[in-house]
Amino acid sequence: MNTFSEEISEGKLPKSDSAKEILSTGENLGLRIWRDEEPNTDKEPHKTEYETVGYVLKGKAELHLGDDVTELTPGDSYVVPKGVEHTYKILETFTAVEATSPPAHLQ
Fold it and tell me: Does domain 3-106 have CATH number 3.40.50.1000?
C-alpha cells in the first residue's frame, strides 16, 4: 500500500474546514467534497496554484471567475483554471465534489 492509500484508509488526510473533506489523493490529483456549505457573502476573491474541476450535487451558488458570474445548480459542472481570481457566493446550502490538480491540500 502506498503512502496516499494509507493516509486515506487511516483517516489521516487533512481537513481545511468543517465543510470541506478530502476524499482521496494521488500524486497529481486530489478529490474533495464541499458538504452542506451554508449561504454566505463573505468569501474573498483569491487565486490558487491548482486547477479545479467540480460537479454540483445539491444547492445553489454563484461562481465569480474573473469578470464572469455563473450560477451553479445540481447537475452543473465547472472549471476554475490555475491562477485565475475567483470566489463562490453560496445561495442555498451547497454540496459539490471537486478534483484538483495538483492536489489542493498539498499546495
Answer: no
Q: What burial class does residue 101 get, using C-beta atoms within 10 Å of its C-beta: 0-12 exposed, 13-18 middle, 19+ buried?
A: middle
Asked if residue 48 has pLDDT above 70, the reply is: yes
Domain ranges of the chain: 3-106
Residue with cell 464572469: 68
Query: Per the confidence metrics, is the pTM higher than 0.90?
Result: no
The three cell numbers of residue 65 are 471567475
pLDDT, tens digit, 9 for 90 and up, residues 81-95: 999 999 999 999 999
Residue listed under C-alpha cell 481570481: 85
Which regions of the chain does DSSP assign to beta strands (E)? 20-25, 30-37, 51-65, 68-72, 77-80, 86-101
